[in-house]
Amino acid sequence: MLDGLVISIDAMGGDEAPDMVIKGLEYFLTHEGKGRRARFLLHGDQAKLTPLLAKAPRTRERSEVVHTEKTISMDDKPSQALRRGKDSSMWNAVAAVKAKRAEIALSAGNTGALMAMSKLQLRMKQGVQRPALAALWPKENGVSVVLDVGANIDVDAAQLTEFAVMGEAYHKALYKSESPSIGLLNVGTEDQKGNAVIRAAHERLSESQLGLNYAGYVEGNDISTGTVDVIVTDGFTGNIALKTAEGMAKLIGTFFNEALQGNFWSKMLTFLNAYALFKLKRRIDPRRVNGAVFLGLNGIVIKSHGGTDRVGFANAVNIAILLAETDFMHAIDVRLDALHDEDDNIGFIP
Amino acid sequence: MLDGLVISIDAMGGDEAPDMVIKGLEYFLTHEGKGRRARFLLHGDQAKLTPLLAKAPRTRERSEVVHTEKTISMDDKPSQALRRGKDSSMWNAVAAVKAKRAEIALSAGNTGALMAMSKLQLRMKQGVQRPALAALWPKENGVSVVLDVGANIDVDAAQLTEFAVMGEAYHKALYKSESPSIGLLNVGTEDQKGNAVIRAAHERLSESQLGLNYAGYVEGNDISTGTVDVIVTDGFTGNIALKTAEGMAKLIGTFFNEALQGNFWSKMLTFLNAYALFKLKRRIDPRRVNGAVFLGLNGIVIKSHGGTDRVGFANAVNIAILLAETDFMHAIDVRLDALHDEDDNIGFIP
């Protein structure tokens, strides 16, 4: 039987699973995770996992395989996944959290399916309508939390205020921050900007007596500048902002490589640049911020990028363990309850 | 009296106006605009413009000052600007286009005020509800057009389809492209993704027989990758995507500079890197894509970034002249009419 902190892992989720998953765990246990007492429930095909575990001794020692042959594909619609995916590796990974056999579930599989299964099995916290997906974003001094990045396409003002308190709790748990500042993403900083939903959320957050460090509206460029620690937005805008920034970072990388190509001197430069580029790449490496969390559920579920490699997956494992070690779930409950009580007191209608 | 192509310029609009405006014109006439027959109507304070023009001989030779002391501030709300801004430099710049004394108006002033004044004076093309603001975006091979980037916070499916045909006409006019590809910005590429408005626009564009090169849904990362030439989105999402990408580019610049700092060897590297960095900076220089156009009006109005310098302003002047030389306005009319006729034929209700 496993002891210590248990992470429940969908070993079959992700573009290169299960290979990438096992390599990611081994990478984690060899680097950041060295000496950590965490253990893993690996949900997936025993026949495929056994040979991989044979080459990953640290992971094998800390893991227990829960066999299932059923998997969810990246193309399955959430409704299909719910109908046909019971007892799949993803389903079982979440089920272990529900059954309290694990603290946290982690999957690099299909986001929509993972959300649907998590919602169905773990259920939403009282008063919360749908989970929000919170991503990490590199900024000048540290990392900020952006939510929602894709789970809620249409939101109301009440959801945006819930995102604010859940994002605050998440930033506190991961970065031990005292009072992370919160911004509401908009197309300008003047009061009249944006649509009715955003203005209602802005008014509600401005009036709150919950001690939120609310900084008002922020704009797109503020996300990377790092004006605030938590950026609140709807899932449509957040998803597009996140992917647009990834695209821009990639474009600059391409342009830089092209600028360094050409003649002998350019090639020498590439060589001499290696160290500076290494440092730069480390800071903007998307793998270092891999791992988004579903917030608002009665249990923690982490979503790794489906196309990540072992280093990125190891980072998601690290986030899972950092969260499991805190009283994050309780902190969210306390803040959400306080928010909803305040809603009732002031008669807030979103 | 002026002859040749006439550009009507709000000489008092922009953070550093009128200085930056006159320097931008002089820069344009010294570089890209050398030998161009364009002439300029400069709307603004004669007392401030005369000494600046004395130091800008090429601009002085090709310009006529239309005196007004009234200006619109960057903080004025559109409604205030409309009430109090008649006969301001911005108002007069647009009025000259209405009176056919100029082909195009250009301002680096307050975006909301410029849109409101343009709409009131020039009026919308038949069937179009509000202007769309189209921006240029650097991509791997060339430049793409993104619209709307801030004029329309809430849109319906009919507006999104109008953006598609107007963006197509704009790309054709600026880049002489035969059949620019068009993508609809969404949070995924599967049919069921997005909200009802986007899905309705997708269906409408997919069914159109107008010969649009419609590529379907694109995601945030596709904007910089350059999957398509024209990216269609609502003004809220477009504005945030644009500013988020600017912020990410700036962050990478900061990280790169930090990576190059430190010891003697790093400093040598900075020096050796100068050429590669110069080439890189040229390609991602936001000034090279400065100049957004309001589409859907009976007349062309260009908006320069308020904080740009002379190089950026010169680029906006260049776009204005490129557009004025084409049959862009007629091309938009033809395509919008065809779209609206098709709407009627198929009984499209947005």
Kindly describe this structure.
Two copies of one chain form a homodimer. Chain A has 350 residues and is α/β, with parallel strands linked by helices. Chain A has two domains: 1-128 and 296-326, Isopropylmalate Dehydrogenase, CATH 3.40.718.10; 131-289, Isopropylmalate Dehydrogenase, CATH 3.40.718. Helices cover 49% and strands 16% of the residues of chain A. Chain A is built from 13 helices and eleven strands. An eleven-stranded mixed sheet of chain A has the order 3-2-1-4-11-10-5-6-9-7-8, sandwiched between helices. In chain A, α5 (89-98) runs parallel beside α6 (111-122) and α7 crosses α8 (196-207). The longest helix of chain A is centred in the last third of the chain and has 26 residues, at 235-260. Chain A is globular and about 60 Å long. Chains A and B meet through α9, α10 and α11 of A and α9, α10 and α11 of B.
Strand order of the largest sheet of chain A: 3-2-1-4-11-10-5-6-9-7-8
**Which architecture of the largest domain in chain A would the CATH scheme give at its second level?**
3-Layer(aba) Sandwich
Task: Specify the oligomeric state.
Answer: homodimer
- Portion of residues within helices of chain A: 40-55%
Fraction in beta strands of chain A? 15-25%
Provide a count of the helices of chain A.
13
CATH topology of the largest domain in chain A, anyone? Isopropylmalate Dehydrogenase
Computed over alpha carbons, the radius of gyration of chain A is 21 Å
Low-confidence stretches of chain A: none
Assigned CATH superfamily of the largest domain in chain A: Isopropylmalate Dehydrogenase
Sheet with the most strands, sense and barrel status of chain A: 11 strands, mixed
Shape of chain A: globular
What is the CATH class name of the largest domain in chain A? Alpha Beta
